[in-house]
From TrEMBL:
Membrane topology: Multi-pass membrane protein
Membrane-spanning residues: 43-60
Domain Peptidase S26: 39-237
CDD domains (UniProt xref): S26_SPase_I
Name the UniProt record assigns to this protein: Signal peptidase I
Main location: membrane
This enzyme's EC code(s): 3.4.21.89
Species whose genome carries this gene: Thiohalorhabdus denitrificans
MF (Gene Ontology): serine-type endopeptidase activity; signal peptidase activity
Family: Belongs to the peptidase S26 family.
InterPro entries in alphabetical order: LexA/Signal_pep-like_sf (IPR036286), Pept_S26A_signal_pept_1 (IPR000223), Pept_S26A_signal_pept_1_CS (IPR019758), Pept_S26A_signal_pept_1_Lys-AS (IPR019757), Pept_S26A_signal_pept_1_Ser-AS (IPR019756), Peptidase_S26 (IPR019533)
Reactions performed catalytically: Cleavage of hydrophobic, N-terminal signal or leader sequences from secreted and periplasmic proteins
Keywords: Hydrolase, Membrane, Protease, Transmembrane, Transmembrane helix
Amino acid sequence: MNFTLLLVVLLLATGAVWLGGWLYQRLRKRGGEGRPVVVEYARSLFPVILVVLLIRSFVVEPFKIPSGSMLPTLRIGDFILVNKFEYGLRVPLVGYKLTDGSPPERGDVIVFQFPEDRSVDYIKRIVAVPGDRLAFRDDTLMVNGKPVPRSADGRFTYREPRGGTVYAERFEERTEEHRYHVLYTENRQGRSINDPIQVPEGRYFVMGDNRDNSNDSRYWGTVPERNILGEAFMVWWSWDGRANAPRWGRLGEWVD
């Protein structure tokens, strides 16, 4: 069940119980003594649920990294914080935009609702914004006819969840606002885009930093602006499932 929906349901339920108890007492001309326990619980929980809902909807929301598609930037077991106001505030559940905010930029790491199933949240990096022409061939990302600047930065090895070892080349890519690392594995299995495509208005082209192991816009298309939930900005907790221990060195690490 969607956690935001659960919070809204709990908020309405506790609010209704609290209000009902208050009206009942007013009608019976009674004071505050002898209120039913359920009314007392509702009165205590209502403000707590309201604060949590407001923070998650308009300030920050936690998100867990479920896959290795954003390696080496984000690892399986990372818990990140998502900025909910950078791109404008939205009404929970309905998505109505209250403020404009700043437009998403190339290089931003975003959390969004998967276009083919909006109940599922994805995290990827924006590589092209509305109006851009994009191509991706020979491990080179081309935007508006120019290769995205990059430089080799050694090798990277990681273990897959099923136990296999993956050997990859690591590169640093650069945009106007971001410097980040991407991976290309030895078998080069990621899908290419040989013929340039233009990103439609109101949509964004996203890719995982683990370019050969990412289910992204190359396979299912662009992300509508209305699906974007926010920008990832910090790792607040990280758990290594293999070692069954925290990754202390990643706590507080900024996402670039």
